[in-house]
Design a protein that fits this description.
Structural class: alpha/beta
Distance between the termini: 52 Å
Number of helices: 16
Shape: globular
Mean pLDDT: 95
Helix content: 25-40%
Strand order of the largest sheet: 10-11-16-15-14-17
Oligomer: single chain
Largest sheet: 6 strands, antiparallel, barrel
Strand content: 15-25%
Number of strands: 18
Length: 494
């Protein structure tokens, strides 16, 4: 299942009628050549229509990039640009869009061929606001051909995320578990983002699961699982049931996606799931996430939405973890202090029972859920995946609706340390600069739940631009402030 979009950015060069269109054409050609020399040419399409001061040209360009299969737009100000036509193009293009502008090449152009796009970008941004049109504008949106090519390439992950949200359906099963208000959030903001949601009963899922008993495809899925788990397959007797459950979810996705291109899931695993299904779904969740279909635990709707954004932006497998427990001082002194440049309060452990894909674990074993087995027979808790998360750079983040229906988010870059956890579940020792202050003045102060999405690598730059684009107020995007920069709620005398 292809659950992540491919983006083709239509590049439309624009020109104001009192400037020579040939200037925009020359600069657009140079931009496209620079992009194709450095990046994948299939990412972009050069529109042959150069917009002068004409709404008709705008319509022609719009039809051309649609016919070419473009699902994102770059308006390139080769000179000052026609502020009305260029912003009408953005208004009528149904997809993510960006604006960039050409810099003057050298001293020689200043005498006769000066384009003044530096000025035109100001008018373009003002007109976009007049029309209530959202567009991505880089931090410094004026550059030569190579610099503008880099800006367009930076736009790709943002465009993928925005386009994906506009074509996403979240499928959930069951209400949140009893005594679990933490991930409760109104779904109104999903509709504001363009996301569809389908909420189902656990009984619907269980009925479908029973109908898949004896499915002829089960042996093939079991074989896949055996190959994936290798020596970590500690509960082979449960694989057929897990395969039956995986097929149930996949078939549900295909039968219920409707007109949506992309799907993500959120399900339950307690308190009655184990005793009715006779296993826990952790390993299946990890497999689906590894296949590009994120599955969050505990009916965490905004958790699976966050996972999906991370999958699209990073083009990689993600995971969802509890911001779970402190690192013991003993472990810190033995394995971290003096070896890594982190204070004790910069560290914590991220954990979930077993939803992290095997490809993101240093080692793995599929066995039983230790926490649930404290009060249930072990045999009904089989199916969880355990192992230490691979060390390396990460981005911890979450998009959330508050209890009163406002969008809020956080982003923090850090790393998983190469330190043995000595614990159970899918778990890692995380380090984020100034995590202690971030924990208190963003996560606690802003009322975020304990679930956070983890993307592997540094993706904060792109997630931040995505959150801005989709309408999260910038003062509601929290991040880990560096030392010496005070949070508004931080006691200055502490």
């Amino acid at each position: 299942m292809n659950n992540v979009p491919e983006i083709k950015i239509g590049i439309v060069g624009v020109s104001r009628d009192c400037f020579p269109a040939s200037l925009t054409k020359k600069r657009t050609d140079a931009l496209v050549a620079a992009y194709e020399a450095k990046y994948d040419a299939k990412d972009i399409y050069k529109c042959p229509v150069t917009i002068i001061e004409s709404e008709i040209d705008m319509v022609n360009a719009l039809e051309d990039i649609k016919a070419a299969g473009c699902n994102a737009l770059c308006v390139f100000l080769g000179n000052f640009g026609p502020e009305i036509s260029e912003t009408l193009l953005a208004k009528h293009f149904d997809g993510p869009k960006m604006f960039v502008a050409a810099a003057e090449e050298d001293n020689a152009v200043l005498s006769t061929d000066r384009g003044d796009a530096y000025c035109g970008m100001l008018n373009a941004s003002y007109n976009l606001q007049l029309r209530n049109v959202k567009a991505y504008i880089p931090e410094y949106p004026v550059g030569d051909a190579e610099e503008c090519a880099d800006m367009i390439h930076d736009f790709l992950p943002v465009a993928k995320a925005v386009y994906a949200l506009q074509n996403l359906k979240i499928i959930s099963f069951g209400p949140r578990p009893l005594n679990f208000l933490a991930c409760n959030a109104p779904i109104k903001q999903l509709y504001n983002l363009g996301v569809e949601i389908e909420e189902n009963s656990e009984l619907d899922l269980y009925e479908s699961f029973l109908k898949h008993e004896g499915d002829e495809r089960i042996p093939a899925i079991v074989k896949e699982m055996e190959e994936d788990l290798g020596a970590g397959n500690k509960k082979p007797e449960i694989l057929a049931k897990l395969a039956q459950y995986e097929l149930t979810l996949k078939d549900w996705v295909e039968a219920h996606r409707g007109y949506r291109k992309y799907v993500t899931l959120t399900t339950k695993c307690w308190p009655a799931f184990q005793t009715m299904f006779k296993f826990v779904p952790c390993y299946v969740n990890s497999r689906l996430t590894g296949q590009g279909i994120p599955v969050s635990c505990e009916v965490d709707i905004y958790g699976t939405l966050s996972e999906f954004l991370g999958t699209v932006v990073s083009d990689d497998i993600v995971t969802l973890l509890d911001i779970n427990n402190s690192v013991p001082k003993e472990m810190y002194k033995e394995d971290i202090e003096g070896k890594f440049d982190y204070k004790h309060t910069d560290t914590f452990m991220g954990f979930h029972c077993g939803n992290t894909c095997t490809k993101k674990l240093s080692f793995h074993e599929m066995k039983y859920q230790k926490i649930m087995a404290r009060s249930l027979p072990i045999e009904v808790t089989n199916g969880t995946l355990e192992g230490d998360i691979v060390p390396g750079e990460i981005t911890f983040f979450r998009l959330q609706s508050t209890a009163d229906g406002k969008l809020r988010a956080y982003i923090a870059e850090g790393e998983v340390l190469p330190v043995a956890t000595r614990s159970f579940g899918a778990i890692g020792v995380f380090a984020i600069p100034e995590m202690g202050r971030f924990y208190r003045h963003v996560l606690i102060e802003k009322g975020f739940p304990h679930h956070g999405a983890v993307a592997f690598g540094k993706w904060g730059k792109y997630l931040y631009e995505t959150f801005k684009y989709i309408g999260v107020p910038v003062d509601e995007i929290g991040y880990n402030q560096p030392a010496g920069v005070r949070y508004p709620t931080e006691n200055p005398w502490a």
